[in-house]
Amino acid sequence: MADNEGFQEETQQNREERRQIRLRYRNLIDELQENREELINPESNELSERLREADELFKPVKCAREVALDSQAMSMIANIGRMKAQALHTEFVRFQPTEFASKLINFVGGQTASQSESARISALGWARLGKATQPFFKRAPTFQYMLGSFERGPKPVKERQQRAPKEKDNIVGKETVPQQLKDFKTTDQSEATTEEVERVLQILRDLYQEIGDGKDPLSYFDFVLNPDSFGRTVENIFHVSFLIRDGLAKMVIDNEGLPTIYPVDQAEAQKNKERGSQRRHQTVMSITPGDWKELVKIFKIEEAAIPPRESQENGAQNGHG
After folding, report:
1. Which DSSP helix (H) or strand (E) runs through 318?
2. pTM score of the predicted model
3. DSSP structure string for 116-185
4. Exposed site from 46, 158, 206, 236, fewest CB < 10 Å?
């Protein structure tokens, strides 16, 4: 009992610490937006102070929400730094078009009779210029015949020989009756998919009542990610898409821009299905094995929220035994 109370206190402290970090990040972002003109000023050192402040805030960051805020703040600091660099005037190096043209003419070996006449560049000079600039441009190689060009003559016409009619050509075949489908039952694969979707829905309802207290939605990635199998993760995303399509679950974006999910009340889902009033939104989700590993690492997933069917059935049998 004492260990549970200590764990709850530590979790509460961690949540409070994370909340304070997010608050400080939002204040920093607001200051960057409000004092943009002052930060762009080359004579001001405020941008360096904001960068050091962001570095200090990032030291205790451990979760994805705080990482997203840090990324937003650093992106704003980088943009302001770029604008500040553009506003800085230096006289050390300045591009002079006339001087550049003169050096270019000397490089390719061109000659200029006078300032009123244009430079004359030989074919060899142009070839030298092309060879020097070729590494800086990506282009497809020119088309070349492997054995030289050739003339394509007319296609020879083969003489068709008449064949003697076979005996079976004169026989009228019997009328072919297409095979009629008599069994309209669903296949085993579709039945298995339906059962798996119902199992995932029940798990979502149980977690919603246990973790979210029937009020707070669950993190979508915490729900679908399987840290031990990329294939299981893809299957979970596939089955959850059926729940959202049929109006049995709802996905919303939280204040941090991350997707969340929660089950819809059965009566409300049935009512929406009968009225057909729910709006349809389609989203294509792409995930690679690299993305899967990165998400598991960022969200610190150690155990799958949706256990495989085999392990769940074995656990149920052991419980009954």
Report:
1. helix 309-320
2. 0.40
3. TSPPB--HHHHHHHHHHHGGG---PPPP--SS------PPPPPPPPPPPPPGGGGSPPPPPPPPPP---P
4. 158
Q: b vs e for 126-158, b when ≥16 Cβ sit within 10 Å of the residue's Cβ?
A: eeebeeeeeeeeeeeeeeeeeeeeeeeeeeeee
pLDDT digits (tens, 9 = 90+) for 10-61: 455 488 888 888 898 899 888 888 888 888 887 788 888 888 888 888 888 8
Question: Are 47 and 80 spatial neighbours (Cβ–Cβ below 8 Å)?
Answer: yes
Q: Are 69 and 53 in contact (CB under 8 A)?
A: no
Going by C-alpha positions, the residue among 223, 216, 242, 203 that lies closest to residue 295 is 223
The count of C-alpha atoms lying within 13 angstroms of the C-alpha of 183, restricted to the half-sphere facing its C-beta, is 3
Listed range (1-5, 84-88, 251-255) with the worst mean pLDDT: 1-5
Lowest-confidence region among 6-10, 83-87, 291-295, 298-302: 6-10
CA distance 105 to 126: 10
